Amino acid sequence: MSRILIADDVEENRYMLQMLLTGHGHEVLVARNGAEALGMARAGKPDLILSDVLMPQMDGFELCRQCKCDDDLAGVPFVFYTATYTDPKDRDFGLSLGADRYLVKPLEPDCLMRLIREILDLDRGGVREPGGDVEEADYLRSHNEALIRKLEAKMAQLEEANGRLRQEVEERRQAETRLQRLHAAMENAVECVVISDVFGTVEYVNPAFEKSTGFSRYEMTGRSAGRGESAGEEEEFLRRLWNVSRTGGAERGQLQYSRADGQRIEFETVVSPIFDADGELTGYVSILRDITEKRKMEEQLRQAQKMEAIGTLAGGIAHDFNNILSIIFGYVDLLSAEVDEGSDAWQNLRAVLTACDRARNLVGQILTFSRKAERMLVPTDLCMLLKEDAKLLRAALPSTIQIRMRLGTPEEAMVLGDPVQLHQMILNLATNALHSMRQRGGLLEVALREVEVGEQEAQRHPDLAAGRFWLLAVSDTGTGMDEATAARIFEPFFTTKTPGEGTGLGLSVVHGIVQGHGGAIAVDSEVGRGSTFSVYLPVAETEGLPAWENDRASLPGGSERILFVDDEVRVADVGERMLRRFGYQVTTDLSGVAALETFRANPFAFDLVITDQTMPYLTGRDLAVEILGIRPDLPIILCTGFSPDVQEEEAVPGIRKVLIKPLSMKRLVLAVREVLDEQARKASRGRPGEADR
Q1: Which end of the chain is less congested by CB atoms within 10 angstroms, N or C?
Q2: From CA 225, how far away is CA 197, in angstroms rounded?
Q3: Cα separations (Å) of 217 from 222, 233, 290, 335, 651?
Q4: Distance between CA 464 and CA 635 in Å, rounded?
Q5: Burial code of 333-362, b = ≥16 C-beta within 10 A, e = fewer?
Q6: Local confidence band at 304 (pLDDT 50, 70, 90 cut-offs)
Q7: How far apart are CA 692 and CA 655, in angstroms?
Q8: Inter-axis angle of helices 344-371 and 419-436, to 10 degrees?
């Protein structure tokens, strides 16, 4: 068993070495620094000294030098065991002082014990190498150099530590800046931000939430995030929080919320969990977007899409219906020309034409609606509109409400107006009256008469000038209105109906329509006695007779050659027969493709082409382009029942005239003669095809 002296200023190091050496059967002496170790060595010579380098009072280098200068201790094996002086120059300096080994911490325990045994065996065998003899000056120089190297290493470590500290400070500053920016972003965000703890209790709300809900952050802090919701909806909100905490992911959805003023709003929400550095759930962050207006706009869009679909359907129906009317008009025109004027048969045919004329006007209204084009004011019969709308209203009226029509006028009450808008005006007034009588029932009365508005009466209606007007009065026996309500009923969005029953636009639209037709509207109402809306519309002067009733004998004819194209067999047949009746030479084709082949076979065999627009494979417009490419001077008339690409009032390049179906004999013959005479005048001036240049 050997006696080993340990010198180390770190208690943990001394303890580990003591346990290791004692466990291998050695006697161990322990010193906390070099001075203490030197005293213990002189008091009782050890078999081996195991010393650290960096120690207070006396470091390991000085301890080794003192031992090697002491005659009694010079032969004791000396081992450096250090973790700080690791430079090769430090090792050389330590060995030059007479140390047997210079070991760098840490070493495996087995390796350390093997080296200690080797040193002890060498000492017992007398084979140890002699220690170095270092002069005082050399020692001091080498020792100072070692200290300087250690100081430089420490300075480098300190600089590195300072660098890390500066980096940490900068990172913390950047983190604080990011935190400030994040706070500013939440404070200025358009979306509502709510932060709550793990129980759903609000800890923070941003200004957007305060603005949307009317609740301040002081009112919300410490309360449930579902405060503004009903009990069932709050349970749904807490269920979502549970899903978030269970899955660890975001939960999306919509929430109905009650504002501070009781108004209901709708939020689109994203709830996400908040975890700390250890992965523990600490709360939730909720992003809420107010989609109340978006929902209203989506509803308006759905309504617009419905109206667009209805318009498309109406256009398709109008196209087919106009073809059917063209056939009826044509054959009745042909048949009426073969019977004596004034006979029973002639009277019957006249009734058919009257009905067809009404149907044509109705289809015209459908087309105006479906095209969504700029409204055109045309002579319109108010009597006819009121009778048609009365049929619609009677079908929708409950049995508790009666309708009475008092049209104390001639057969016609003509105004210059837009039929679609006038229909809308009548139906809006009637619907408003029906709503006021829905609970107790009553009487809806519609009256129309001609009145003369004088200067004095015109002063009571600022929108009117003196003159002749049709006075349309829509009366009901409903709940009526007080004076304050009656003064506001024409304001946009003002309504006395409960939410969901109306938009408040109906009467404001009526007011706009009446003003757009040069008229005025007034209301007379009393609570419990009902209301009367009086509409003044200017009387329109008309020629009186429909176009088809003019003298047939006065219609011009001709002998020109005409190519008539229509994919409806009956339309093509009646067109051919009407034109042949007035002397024209007519060739018919039932498709654009067939007509183009006929024309290419002999391009100069025709003086005029009349073609339908909507045909399979080759439309009338495309056929016109092909024909004009061969003969630019050839006049073309385009006919259409309804096509979004062709409007009667639009100039179609290369086409002389556009006719809207249904075609009566008079309209067709007059249009043909007009186009052919214009072509003849151009040819006589020597400028053929001028319209196409």
Answers
A1: C
A2: 10
A3: 10, 21, 17, 84, 64
A4: 47
A5: beebeeeeeeeeebeebbeebeebbebbbb
A6: low
A7: 8
A8: 80
- Residue 184 pLDDT greater than 70, yes or no: yes
User: Can you tell me the distance from the alpha carbon of 128 to that of 101, in angstroms, rounded to the nearest whole number?
Assistant: 11
**Residue whose entry in the numeric block shows the structure tokens 């129980």:** 199
Q: Are strands 414-417 and 467-476 parallel, antiparallel or unpaired?
A: unpaired
Amino acid at 480: G
Decide: helix, strand or coil at residue 447: strand
Comparing C-alpha atoms, which of 422, 525, 439, 438 is closest to residue 475?
525
**Cα–Cα distance, 319 to 640 (Å, whole number):** 8
Decide if pLDDT at 29 tops 90: yes
Q: Which residues contact 194 (CB under 8 A, 6 or more apart)?
A: 202, 204, 205, 206, 209, 220, 225, 285, 286, 288
Please state the rounded mean pLDDT for residues 291-303: 73
Count the Cβ atoms, other than its own, within 10 Å of residue 135: 8
Q: How far is CA 324 from CA 221, 319, 363, in A?
A: 72, 9, 12
The per-residue b/e assignment along 173-188, b for 16 or more CB within 10 angstroms, e otherwise, is: eeeeeeeeeeeeebee
pLDDT above 80: residue 159: no
Place of tokens 């249904």: 662
Share the mean pLDDT of the chain: 79
Which pLDDT score is estimated for 433? 81
Q: Which of 214, 200, 314 is nearest to 264 (CA)?
A: 214
Q: Which of 423-427, 530-534, 574-578 has the lowest average pLDDT?
A: 423-427
Structure tokens at 39: 């005293």
Residues in the chain: 693
pLDDT in tens, 402-421: 888 887 655 678 888 877 77
Q: Residue 8's Cα: distance from chain center in Å?
A: 75
Q: How many CB atoms within 10 Å of residue 242?
A: 11
Residues 6+ apart with CB under 8 A from 670: 555, 556
Helices (H), 189-284: 207-213, 217-220, 231-247
CA–CA gap between residue 392 and residue 386 (Å, rounded) = 10
Q: How confident is the model at residue 378 (pLDDT cuts 50, 70, 90)?
A: confident
Strand runs (DSSP E) across 197-331, as ranges?
Answer: 202-205, 251-258, 264-275, 281-290
CB 436 within 8 A of CB 479: yes
Q: In Å, how far are 198, 411, 456, 459, 525 from 451, measured between CA atoms?
A: 76, 16, 14, 15, 21
Kindly tell me if the per-residue pLDDT of 457 is higher than 90.
no
First-to-last C-alpha distance (Å) of the chain: 127
Which tens digits make up the pLDDT trace of 583-603? 999 999 999 999 999 999 999
Q: Is the distance from CB of 668 to CB of 578 less than 8 angstroms?
A: yes
Q: What is the phi/psi pair of residue 171, to 5°? A: -65, -40
